[in-house]
Amino acid sequence: MKKLINSPDSVIADALRGMAAAHPSLAVDLENRVVSRAGGVMAGKVGLVSGGGSGHEPLHGGYVGYGMLDAAAPGEVYTSPVPDQILAATKAADHGSGVLHIVKNYTGDVLNFRMAAELAEDEDIRVVSVVTNDDAAVEDSTYTAGRRGVGGTVFVEKLAGAAAEEGADLDTVAALATRVNEATRSFAIALHAGTVPAAGKPGFDLAENEVELGVGIHGEPGRERGTMQPVHDLVGYALDVIHADRPIAGDQLVMLNGQGGTPLIELYGAFAEAVAWIEGHGGTVARSLVGNYITSLDQQGFSITVMSLDDELLRLWDAPVSTPALRWGR
Amino acid sequence: MKKLINSPDSVIADALRGMAAAHPSLAVDLENRVVSRAGGVMAGKVGLVSGGGSGHEPLHGGYVGYGMLDAAAPGEVYTSPVPDQILAATKAADHGSGVLHIVKNYTGDVLNFRMAAELAEDEDIRVVSVVTNDDAAVEDSTYTAGRRGVGGTVFVEKLAGAAAEEGADLDTVAALATRVNEATRSFAIALHAGTVPAAGKPGFDLAENEVELGVGIHGEPGRERGTMQPVHDLVGYALDVIHADRPIAGDQLVMLNGQGGTPLIELYGAFAEAVAWIEGHGGTVARSLVGNYITSLDQQGFSITVMSLDDELLRLWDAPVSTPALRWGR
């Protein structure tokens, strides 16, 4: 597998140099590997930090900016950031009113964020952590006790970020993040595995007529190996699983997400099927995202993330956001 | 090759249904296959229309909206839209002050847009056409007499769109579009070919150590088949070709574009190399885009598009834009 890189060892450093050059709104600390807002301290604002293994771009660095994160800590590809790095991100996000850690539920991430939170408390920064676990595919998995944190993390970052921008305090922002996570479910299907640069070959093998149903964002196994079907049926499978876990009713926020190697024209086609399914079950797609928002390198496939909206969540979703990957209203 | 589709015949119709559902700011005419702004007539504004084969998303439908296009006509995958379809787009874009056709230089596109322009003139809509031909790779190609129109088309749509939004008249907008095209050069390198749904297999074959240097957006051959190199060298090759054709000096607008199947983390790494090359040659990257802006289905690879900026072009680039794929300032 050919990769557009200099060497597997330099992938993160090279990408961070590119992010720094592409986005003057970001401050990129190449030594500590922290992406934060260039604006400096915003007195009184709760800080939001996320992070995790790289390879899921634009997650998380692409969501640093007005109305979303204050800082992100990108680890090596598919590898948790280290505690000192998360501590540096926490300090960069600290405006004196405490910091929320948004942590996808993976054992390494949870452990390292917890250690970073303790280090931050030693420096008198109050930290509250919210662990996302929205993947409806499996109860436990290769890298997790409990469900995996996946696409719902984007919703948590946007909605908690909007609340923090409005001046909500740390406990309020954390409670909102928890509520968003609980209202959100995701399911992913892979057609062709992504390739980790250091491995040099796809992370798993799928035959020409096979798909992985319920795949994780690092190619972890899902519920079952299935047969390739028209997108109508694949989307229906995903939404059936989500609906059985948490009924889809009323106004929905829907993300039809690409895993990195699937073209936008196919994602739009998949989204059309998702809308038809949801409307056929009495729901409404009130807001949506279609595109690459949480990826798995060059993996081919999609995920669907669905959240029930109420007036508060709708207002926070529509609030202005200005980050490299999500931008509206300013 | 597995595709996330219902059938090769329904790809465009399904994608348009998805676009319509995802973007309330768009009016999608499923019968005529025209994507236009939902806002209706804007008296006195010059209308901008583009179009071409599908498979290059977000081009062109993703660039319909405030500050860019008024309407787009998507053909079948890698196939020109038909004259009646382009005529329908032209009517949808007509606000009474004439319409600019922005046409990528491909024989079919040029021919069908010309016929559509004649049909529009019969209905008393004045049309001026600008043909983009920014690809520095080859002088003539599989589907063109003369150079191919590629990534520079995005710059033309943004900058001419900003001028039209400001109230410039048709001749002024057309002259600006011509000037932008002339100031812009692109070069693309493919690592792995994309797959047209109806074909079911990659459009061309590259060995594990090969790349196509100067590839077109439909997988057309470039200058030569080369050996896989570190991204530093691939980016250097591309910029050397561009620089020899039109010297890169002063403030530059740079797009580091993915061909659809290359992950964002790699595009950022490639962009870092482009910035280093340009700064090493005395230029400055004043503005940039990094991501999937003009794609070739799921093809792996990148293109670089470079334009020299002056005060007017910089101002028009920074002007507000609100489309599905490009959005800032409002």
From TrEMBL, chains A, B:
This protein's record includes keyword Transferase: yes
SUPFAM superfamilies assigned to the protein according to its UniProt record, in alphabetical order: DAK1/DegV-like (SSF82549)
Keywords: Kinase, Transferase
Enzyme Commission number(s) of this protein: 2.7.1.121
GO molecular function list: glycerone kinase activity; phosphoenolpyruvate-glycerone phosphotransferase activity
InterPro entries per record: DhaK_1 (IPR012736), DhaK_dom (IPR004006), Dihydroxyacetone_Kinase (IPR050861)
GO BP annotation list: glycerol catabolic process
Superkingdom as given in the UniProt entry: Bacteria
GO CC term, one of those recorded: cytosol
Broad class of enzyme this protein falls into: transferase
Positions of the DhaK domain: 7-328
Entry keyword annotation includes Electron transport: no
UniProt cross-references to PANTHER family, sorted A to Z: TRIOKINASE/FMN CYCLASE, TRIOKINASE_FMN CYCLASE
Protein name listed in UniProt: Dihydroxyacetone kinase subunit DhaK
Organism from which the protein derives: Jiangella ureilytica
Gene assigned in the entry: dhaK
